[in-house]
What does this fold into?
Amino acid sequence: MNDKKTPLWLDSAHKTEERVEALIQEMTVEECVLQLLQVRVDNVTPELLKGGVGSVILAASATAGNDAQEQSSAKQVDDLQRVAVDESRLGIPFVTGRDVIHGHNTVFPVPLGQAAAWDPELVEQGCRVSAVEASADGIHWTFSPMVDICRDPRWGRIMEGYGESPHLMSVLGAAAVRGYQTDDPSAEDAIAACAKHFAGYGAAEGGRDYNSTEITRSTLEDVYLPPFEALVEAGCLTFMSSFNEIDGVSSAANPLLLTDILRKRWGFSGFVVTDWDAVRELLNHGIAEDGAEAAEKCLNAGADMNMVDFLYGKHLASLLEEGRIKEETLRESVRRILRVKVDIGLFDRPYTGLRTVDRSSHKQLAREAAARCSVLLKNEGVLPLASTECVAVLGPMATATQELFGSWTLDGIPSEVISLLDALKEVAPERNFRYADWGDASGMDTAAVGSDCILLVLGETPSRSGEAHSVGDPMLPPGQADMLEQMLRFGKPVILLVIAGRPLVLPEAAQRCAAILYSFHPGSEGGRGLADVLVGVSEPEGRLPVTLPRSAGQIPIYHDHKPTGRPTNEYHRAPGEGGGMRLIDQPGSPLYRFGFGLGYSEFRVGIPLVCSASVEQGIMLEVEVENTGSCKGSTVVQAYTRIPVAERSQPVRRLSAFHRVRLDTGETCQVRLHLHPRELSYTHLDGEKRTDPGTVHVWVGQHCSDGTLLEVELA
Ligand code: BGC
It folds into this structure.
């Protein structure tokens, strides 16, 4: 750029809209088209940079979560950016995007694990740390959070979202956006968030990745869309369209989603990026004849930025000449992208430079997160471990290091991770831990026989979950159930620790364990965090953000199912309790319910008092909570609702509010829960979503089948 006078769009004294308009006026059609392209970092050329390419994706393969990637580096980005800024006609910086999914250098538990903490503050803090670290490496924009509701543990990407409940997903997704973007997305250490995958990707049939979905309009509106709407309200700057089709239309080309709902109804003013190759995939879906038609459909539907397949670059100019797209549509997409670039401060500070980040507090937070996200499913008094005991620490995950990261860890530092076994020795050096390699059967037997109890650490490596890594049988990997059987034979208490990327169907033998602790991949400080829990330095605070089925045949199984004409409501009943059965070969209740988890203390949740109830304000409840256990601890007070009579059949219970409390032993407190009117609304037969006056059933307890029924009248 040789302009003597500073152009208006480079002058931060002007408002975003003025800057964007001034710039748009100057742009040629070719420059507009380039602005809509996102190219792979390994495909970026000086020509593209000088022409004014919109974005560079810092990934070199289609399933970055499971393939090794180059580390991101500020220097590499700055070097490319210099060409874009100094050598292009208008000096527009490109925006870099990368999958910073659950941490950057410091890796936090996978999102499903974070969800188990039921604590928006923890999610926000983790995403804040991610933003601080990622921005120092030249990353402007993360493709996170993923807020795809998932009711199927076979789907490999279940680890990447916050579980099965629209309410929990909405609250935690919004917290993630706050953490990444802060109140000031232009801050040096903030990064733009991306709500993905819009929409319905988690409903892939049979859990098979990229599969078609069957989602009715009311289920779309009431189950899959609310978390996305919550992210718009939280100010999320960008959206990513999903791969799947709904009702025959791929999301990248779905005007209902990308324009009518997202823009017109929710007022989203940021931009939409298509997922990797998704424009081209219209050909595979069979809804475009060629690349030109695919590009035409996607742009006209409202997809602004074209991730990697380059079809916008190839075809938009000629589509414009042929009148198949309008220039205003093209410019409107450019406008949306430029608006975000201005708002994140890219024009004012295009380079990252050399920044050092002090990560000491980050590691501590990751350690606390790993501990707090673990879910104690069963405990016959064996946890925390007694200090005098000799413990055999066995199983394939006991010495796992990098595997603790989980899928979608592009920039974690493997050399920083220590295993659970080493962490136990570090946390409790005076204690007696006996280890034998899991390949050495007789060594394991000897360690087991010579110990007071057995800590068996089983689970999945990260490559058994994540994108394109779904499984047909969500069981423990081959051989592990046998290993458990073998260990149970010694008659010693067995503590089963599962470290996995999904809710696994646990073998029958798990019932015979003295304790079960479940951790979704816990991140770089996972070894230490879990060791803290096992020895009692920390409490396992997790509550299940998804249902744990008894068998693969129960899938899909989730707490907010509908009642049916011959209701059994088995999910919420204990096995053996009367009523019809939906399956004759097994109970209808899951192995562990949504919202369930034990701590090291015990809590009493009283009968809630209804403070107010109205269609406009929702329901305000107050409930007394008491720590009745023998140590300080924490629980999650959860409110569930049902609309018993509606135009459309409504879920038998759905999570509508929650609050985490921490109390000393014997201490009580009053918890206020606000059930927002939107939690009491549904999509009526006329297509409108609203809250009606009338009776609402409410339960308040410590998991989804807990609590006494309360009938509340909404006036
Ligand atoms: C995934 C997205 C990801 C993108 C970029 C796609 O394959 O579905 O979630 O953000 O790749 O790596």
Observations:
- The mean pLDDT is 96.
- The first strand starts at residue 37 and ends at 40.
- Residues 119 and 660 are 7 Å apart (CA to CA).
